[in-house]
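Hey, can you fold this one?
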Amino acid sequence: MRTQPEPLPTTAESVVQTFVFLLVAFAAMVVASYPMATLLLLAGVGVATLATIGVLAARRSLGRRSHICIPRTGVCIDA
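Sure. Predicted structure:
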């Protein structure tokens, strides 16, 4: 019994794969060129995340519930 070979990717899939590969290569080049800026950016994202969690926790402890939805995704968080 022979199994069917896996179909070749479509042109659109190939274009998307190439674009993602180039995007990742460019990001790696930027990170290698500017390591300090990359660390500062990651630190800033971390601080913003912790601040958001802190605000939500403070609101919850005060008895106020937060209902946050990410637009166009259908993802909602009750905190």
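The chain has a mean pLDDT of 86. Let me know if you want another pass with a different chain boundary.
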